[in-house]
Carbamoyltransferase (candidate division WOR-3 bacterium RBG_13_43_14), 748 residues
Amino acid sequence: MRERRKVIISGVVQGVGFRPFIYRLANDRGLTGFIRNTSKGVDIEVEGSADKIRIFLTDVRTRKPVAANIYAIRQHKIRLIYDKGFRIVSSRIEKGFTQISPDIATCSACYSEFMDRKDRRYLYPFINCTNCGPRYSIIINTPYDRRSTSMKEFEMCPQCQHEFEDVDDRRFHAQPDCCELCGPQYSLFTSKNRLVNGDPIKNTIRLLKKGEIIAIKGIGGFHIACDARQGKTIERLRKLKNRPTKPFAIMVGDSNRDQVAYISRAEHSRLLSPPAPILLLRKKPHNPVNRAVAPNNPYIGIIAPYVPMHYMLLDQVPFFLMTSANRADEPIAFSREQVMANLSGIVSFCLDHDRDIENRCDDSVGYVASDKKFMIIRRSRGLAPAPLTIPFQVKPSLGVGPFLKNTFTLANKSEAYMSPHIGDLDNLETMVFYKEMTQKYQRWFKIEPELIVHDMHPEYLSTKIANDLPGKKIAVQHHVAHIAAVLAENSVNDKVIGIAYDGTGYGEDGRIWGGEFFAGTIRNLKRAAHLRYLPLPGGEVSIIKPYRIAIAYYYKLLGQKIGRNKWRTEARSIWNMIDKNIGLVETSSMGRLFDCVAGLIGVTEEITYEAEAAINLEYMTKKGVKTFYQYAIEDNDIMIIDPSKILKGILYDLKKGIDPGVISAKFHNTVTEFTLDMVQRLAGKYSTDKICLSGGVFQNRYLLERIIDRIRTAGFKVYLHQNLPTNDGCISYGQVVYGNMRERKERI
Ligand code: ZN
Ligand code: ZN
Ligand code: FE
């Protein structure tokens, strides 16, 4: 039976070779009709035998191009037209959303050509096709075509032009298509901006081998690279970058990767997936990489080559360190001028190329959990700006995001566009980057926000930015945004218990929250329980020196004066502050409780990057410990978890000389126990069996796995983030979601 169907596909289906794929699929089956890009995805009409159309539709899902991401396929029967052949027709872009594909790692077909001596693009480092290459990072404007990208500077040679126009060619409509004759080129410069003669990539290899530190231009910005086997070079880089312990990631090729880390099949395919993220993998004990890359760390961040040039370097330097080229917390450098201005003291050479980076983005980071789920830690290159969905209709809105690990989210109707990772909004460079990106997003996605959602903290720069923008403003509490984000990502409408274990977030009562339980729905979340408020002496300084938190908590909760001799003076002033109740910030933060324990055990005296002490505490946990400490829960209207007995138990163990690794495991187990206890109480009180988790503390894999396991075994349903990080990278999305709910209620 002959029929005709209209098929509407939404998702990331533009700039990823989707139209030629459909064209071939339809032609192979002898189906007629057409496909065109629309502002939301693609529209297809197909006509032919019902059987063939059915197979066609299955193939669309199962054989789609690797970089395509289908969100939904809707289809219905329409009238027969009896047209001849299948065509690709021009786009129909209405006002509204347009799509931008994230950048895509070099595909296997391009890699084969790249390595093929007979191919005209043999060893041409900018080889790309419809399935791979730069996208987001080169876009100037939408809709996405060559004239609106930084490839506009390069006029296609006749051969490339021919490929571009030939629907049967795998470079049909590949906007960044180019070759040695017509495309970009690399060149190498000294840190004094002098051109180095000779083959730029061969020279880079020679210099890396010699132990030089080099800035290398990639897709979303420059990296600082050096040989990951040379300890002295890495130590020098650590000194220059003022980064004593924070782990670096390394790039390793296929053949050498399993020398460095244990890699499961799921991890392997994630490494080689189109976004090519940095994956945290369990390190092998004896590996060729210098230990200075990730000292005292059971994991190592590994990234696969994702542009052709990476393969050329790896051929000669099999393990190289890669880190975003920036000073401390500033955004990644994207031009040689920036490298020269800011990094000439760190790098001695700069491998540049002449295709501009229009939009910078750092490498994305994640890990594969034991249930094979990909857990995102930083959502950036390869992932942004793919749209996220919101399970209800929102106004044109902007979520300005948090203070640390900022991202913003621009949304309209049921679609949300989150920026790549921007960074900590505490320096001018980042602020400039932030403002530039919010403007670009508004232009590209044609959303003029009517609702601006910001944090409750009146002093945050993001709050100040929000206040300067036109439109209605709504403040959403940090941890409410965390929970709203998980709920929306999982389309949960029912009543839930939301647990936010986090570092810092400004609370509704002006105190610092971070060990929070909420009850309610996505429309209305109410604080139901929290960790006891405890004093943070001197605020920020105690976050850097975790032993100060131990001194304060022990004195406040147990009246005990703990602390080593070298801390005596500091301890005295802290006790004094508590006695007189001056200079204290009260906090219910779970992150600080971890700091307290880490500080007491003496894991990390002073942290040099966020959550370092808590991370080290996690890494020292002894396997196989099942015991835990006593704790108390006060059953008030808002319940309180009191850690007094926990601290008492830890001090007792410490004095008995118990292995700190055992103490750490027992502490982690205790947090698991009281979490389950609280879940059971609140689930009864609010009659729900749905639990959702968010917050930076859940980046602790030991804790997260145990909490999930215990809560599930007890019969609850657990919801986690799907496409967003559990850290503050999810906040702007949660702000948009909850801000719209609040705004609706205000109107009614
Ligand atoms: Zn390709
Ligand atoms: Zn060409
Ligand atoms: Fe947070």
